[in-house]
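In the laboratory, one determines a bound structure by crystallizing the protein with its ligand and collecting diffraction data. In a computational setting the workflow is compressed into a single prediction: the sequence and the ligand go in, and a structural description comes out. We illustrate the idea with adenosine-5'-diphosphate.
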Amino acid sequence: MSSLQSASDAITEYTRDIALYRRLLVIAGGVYLGWWLGIHLILPNAFNPLPSRLAVVTVIFAIWGLSFVSAWVRARVRLFLIASTWLITLHFYFLFYENGGDANWVIGSYITVIAINLCLLTAASLLSYSVYVTVLSALMAYLLPHLRDSIFLPGLLTILVQANMGLRARASIIRNLIASNERFQLLFHATFDGIIVHEGGKILTTNESMSQISGFSREELVGRSVLDILAPEERATVQVKLGQDEVIPYETHGLRKDGRITDVEVRAKNFQYDGRSVRLVTIQDISDRKKADRERVKALTAIENLRVRDEFISIASHELKTPISSLKLQTQMIERDLKHGVSDLDTPEKIADVMALFHRQIDRLTELVESMLDVSRISAGRFTLDLADVDLAELARQSVKLMSVHTLSTGAPPIEVRVPQSLVVKGDRRRLQQVIENMLSNSLKYGNRKPISVELRTDAAEAQLIFRDHGLGIAPEFLPRIFDRFERAISARNISGLGLGLYITRQIVESHGGTVSVTSDLGVGSVFTVHLPIAAVK
Ligand code: ADP
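The predicted complex, in structure-token form:
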């Protein structure tokens, strides 16, 4: 425990003692004044002057009052309490003497001494008081000889011996209690978890570990709201939990005094404390564990990224090789036929057919290289839009026309187009065309040669381009990943592809402020919808 802490504990103890001595002063003064009335009623003929008793009581109450205004008196209030008990005793023996050592006053002396013994809390004060009373009593016995033949002195000494022994027993109980409390405090403060007891969010008590977790001292924490030591964004959620009776542990973010955010695990339950229904909360700092978790996830992601990249490189090499091999084979064959004078490229139609084949392979190569370049542009943050007015309806019609020219000869189904006359948006024409072509080429590729369609709709919030096919469909477990880089829901052996089209499409649409969504049933078909917000629509 810090020296500051022990100093503050000592101050708390001192304040508590002063309050106790003040209370004892008031009790002593009050009872001694009330005692006058008792004698007045029970022994009306006794010598029982009020003024001298009032003077004694006034002195006692004056000490009590001064303890509030004078630090000097306050620091010595225990001594003043002892002095007051001596003063009361002295005054009582004066009355005792003036009443001639009457038997009633013998009993009164016993009552007075017993009552005062109860106000004295230390062995030294009790012992010195015992000596003082013995001397006074011996003096009485000397002045009033008949007391020597009575039980006055033996009775008084018995009371004093009993009081001293009783105090020892009481002191040992108190010592045990203090030791047990100290052991409890030690455990309470040394435990690994931070502990808070709060009532409706207001902290009543807390331990040293909590002070280390939060950076606030225990004094700063007591009286504060538990919400103050939580990250601002967590406060609303935790506030709801404050009133509940759940014990379920939950994780949240703590706010340290120095402004640092920590990961903490919290457990809380309601219980009775000092007769009040409060909430006991234990708080564990799990920042290190969380950091280790995050690093593990990072390492796993890095390994996964490497695996995906290697797979991509092998797919990409294969994809690039296919059109190159085909081109090479065709040119070698033409070369060989020309050399041997057996070439059948003797009509413009035949030459056009070969050229078309070459173009398809070159287009495929260009497309692959463009995709890879786009991905590297996106990764490097160099993906920019060239915004202008674009008629989406006209763009859709034109893209379909262009694709049909290439695909109809391969036996692909016609593409149904349902678009309004015109729908002008603010966008990058080339990129939006790329989106439409990517989506259409997927519909054709995975559409099982069944009819496909593109539709353009608009409402108050957004424009929607809907691409529908009745082909392979996508298994639900792949749906969340198909828009990620290099992700494919089908083996490269079945249908070739780099797994980049949807990734690029999503990046383009998102950079226009839109989203892409998909619904699909395996073996039934897929519907991809490109949502462009109305803000992006002119
Ligand atoms: P690629 O087609 O080159 O593999 P994409 O990024 O365009 O890459 O598509 C990712 C994956 O999503 C594809 O491999 C395929 O499994 C799936 N997919 C995309 N469009 C469709 C569709 N219309 N029907 C069924 N599966 C599709």
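The pocket of adenosine-5'-diphosphate is lined by residues 442-443, 446, 469, 471-474, 482, 488-490, 497-503, 526 (CB under 6 Å). Keep in mind that any predicted model is a hypothesis to be tested, not a measurement.
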